[in-house]
Amino acid sequence: MVSDPDAALMVAFRGGDESAFRALFEKHGRAMVAFCRRFTRDPSRAEELAQDVFLKVYRSADGYEPTARFTTFLYRIATNHCLNEVRRARRDPQPGHDPRADDGAPLDPDALPSTGASPEDEATGRALERSVERLLARLPENQRAAFVLCRFQGLSYEDIAQVLGVTVPAVKSLVHRATVAAAEALAPFAGGEGAAA
Amino acid sequence: MTARVPSDPHVVEDLTALADGALPPDRRAAVEAHLAGCPACRERRAALAAALAVLAAAPRPPEPLPGFEQRFYARLAREKGARRGWLTRLAARPRRWLVPAGGLAAAAAVIAVGVLQVREDRMEMARHLDLLEDYVAIASLDAVESAEDVEVVLQLDRLEGRP
């Protein structure tokens, strides 16, 4: 048994406590939307995909064993689901819809929360977000998964290794290569030329 | 950790893990010792650190629209309802299957009895093949015209002393 409050909630849910599942969703649901958005680069489907992930968690409760951290279990489901979605979208592109064409811009600019920043700072922020989206679009799937899990979801190398089913040294290499690519892509925002490689 | 080309004295592959605090203590010490004497690796570390700082400052994706949790709970309720309905239908299926299944079983029984009956008739016919041959031979002579003639044919065995 892993000492993990979320795993304990999942065990409680497995025992029939629906409120434990709600607690897990309310803790991780919004971060899951962000993960799905960044992984699939499809803002229009991110919420639906995040819902799919939690429905899978709901259905898999009977077979859940707390052998690892709950986030490992959660993001393993999410990564597989998003990978399937990315591959499905590549095989069966929707007419008139190409997530890459979104180029990181939100579907509805009015939906962006006001940060109180100056218009210049907001413009820089949007340009940076677009650069991050372009970077993610260029990364191979395994690098993108490791990079998003590490940089945006805050998972450790060990947890990422469990999520992706690879070794920790493999994660170290995936994260490093993606970070080198990020250094090149984001150099204009860092005031440097990105000589990390 | 990661295997490096022995001829490469630099520690580039370890720089990201160093920034992430993911190196074991002994490796961390070795990398930092190398950095102290290697301007090229220090420059690479600085570029990586700058990129990580930019990423940390990147705007978060927009929050889901209001009602995010409620939309999920509504979908969850629909899925649970659909699942219950599916299970109910599944449970009801055996009863609905009884009618066609019973009909099929009855039809199979009738066919089996029929097949057995036909088989029995054929066996009976085979047992009395001689008699049948006699009947056909006599009928071909137009000798069988009445029920009494048939009775005579039926008695031929006995009349001829056959077993």
List the defining traits of the structure above.
heterodimer; A: 197 residues; mainly alpha; 10 helices; 0% strand; globular; B: 163 residues
Topology:
The complex is a heterodimer of chains A (197) and B (163).
Chain A lengths: L4 H10 L3 H23 L5 H14 L10 H22 L7 H4 L16 H20 L2 H12 L4 H8 L3 H18 L1 H4 L7
Helix pairs in contact in A: 1-2, 2-3, 2-4, 3-4, 4-8, 7-9, 8-9
Chain B lengths: L11 H8 L5 H12 L2 H19 L10 H60 L1 H12 L6 H8 L1 H5 L3
Helix pairs in contact in B: 1-3
Short description:
The complex is a heterodimer of chains A (197) and B (163). Chain A has ten helices and no strands. Chain A has helices at residues 5-14, 18-40, 46-59, 70-91, 99-102, 119-138, 141-152, 157-164, 168-185, 187-190.
Structural class, judged by helices and strands of chain A? mainly alpha
Strand residue content of chain B? under 5%
Helical content of chain A (DSSP H or I, runs of 4+): 55-70%
- SSE ordering of chain B: HHHHHHH
Range of strand content of chain A: under 5%
Mean pLDDT of chain B: 74
Please, what is the average pLDDT of chain A? 87
- H/E series of chain A, N to C? HHHHHHHHHH
Radius of gyration of chain A: 18 Å
Count of individual beta strands of chain A: 0
Say what oligomer this is. heterodimer
Q: Count of DSSP E strands of chain B?
A: 0
Structural class by SSE content of chain B: mainly alpha
- How large is the radius of gyration of chain B? 48 Å
Largest interface: A-B, 51 and 38 residues
Q: How would you characterize the overall build of this protein?
A:
The complex is a heterodimer of chains A (197) and B (163). In chain A, 40% of the residues are buried. Chain A has 197 residues and is an all-alpha fold. Chain A is built from ten helices and no strands. With 163 residues, chain B is an all-alpha fold. Helices cover 76% and strands 0% of the residues of chain B. In chain B, helix 1 (12-19) packs across helix 3. In chain B, 12% of the residues are buried. At the A-B interface, helix 2, helix 3, helix 6, helix 9 and helix 10 of A face helix 1, helix 3 and helix 4 of B.
